[in-house]
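General statements about sequence and structure are easier to judge against a single worked case. For one protein, we set the task of working out the structure tokens from the amino acid sequence alone. This step matters because it turns folding into a mapping between discrete strings. The amino acid sequence and the backbone structure tokens for this protein are reproduced below.
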Amino acid sequence: MGRLYLAGLAAFLIAAFGQVQAQGSNQQADEEIAQGRAMVQAGVDEIIREELALTAEEGELFWPVYAAYRSETRALMDRYTAMITDYVRRYDSGDLSDEYASELMETFFGIKQGLLDVKKDYLPKFGSVVPALKVARFYQLENKIEAEIDGQLAIAIPLIDPN
């Protein structure tokens, strides 16, 4: 159920991004994107809970670390969402330039590096509360979920036309 649930939520999120193009109201589109992101995060949490199969003792130790991890990654994903939303709006209005493209790439790689840094920082924290095999499975789940969402975003977000 978790995988199908996530796919549906990712599709909802993509639809919300698509509405940035169609909506006259940025606030309404932003609210729909925030709602979609919250639903996706709830689905991610459900998948982690189902797939990690923590014992009660492990869960007591894991979930507070996970909450701190999510807090740090959420801040980066807020920046990522803002970057994508801004890009789609600028794309639709024809407001793209070489300068903006350079800024966009710097922002993108900064966010991706930040996410990698957080993952690396939390590796020993997770390892101190659950066995290494479960930590590895957690990171595998994270990577699969991110790949699925990134794939959906890649379909929905238009490519820059360099001409």
In short: The radius of gyration is 17 Å.
